[in-house]
Design a protein that fits this description.
By secondary structure, the chain is an all-alpha fold. It is built from two helices and no strands. Helix 1 (4-20) packs antiparallel against helix 2 (24-41).
């Protein structure tokens, strides 16, 4: 599964594309996909690097 940062970056890219397009149907689909990725972010693990002395969360 992709990490939170990856999903956030992908959602941001889709939002930029939605703003750049002149086709409203394409913009709506891109916004829907960005919303889906944002929802998945809440379930995704945080894969960002941690300092060695920090305890890893259970789960």
């Amino acid at each position: 599964m992709a990490g939170k940062k990856y999903l956030a970056d992908q959602a941001a890219t889709l939002l930029k594309f939605a703003q750049a397009t002149t086709d409203p149907d394409v913009a709506v689909r891109l916004l829907d996909k960005a919303a889906d990725l944002t929802a998945k972010m809440e379930e995704a693990p945080d894969l960002s690097p941690r300092a060695p002395d920090v305890e890893q969360p259970d789960g």
